[in-house]
Design brief:
single chain, elongated, 0% strand, mainly alpha
């Protein structure tokens, strides 16, 4: 029997957020070097990288 708790729910939410962030990073108009740095940050530091990207990452100007 599988025992899913709050830890697995948080993990899934962070994974979904990271995937969303990586897709948005790759679609941004930033240089390839900046895209690579952001993707590495999000992959190596899932929660912190996601938060940093959300506040400091490249934007396309869409609101």
């Amino acid at each position: 029997m599988m025992n899913f708790g709050y830890h697995s729910l948080w993990g899934l939410l962070i994974l979904a957020g990271d995937i969303w962030a990586i897709i948005n990073i790759l679609q941004s108009s930033a240089s390839n070097e900046k895209k690579l740095i952001w993707v590495i940050a999000v992959v190596l530091l899932p929660l912190l990288g996601l938060i940093l990207w959300y506040f400091l990452g490249p934007r396309n100007g869409k609101v």
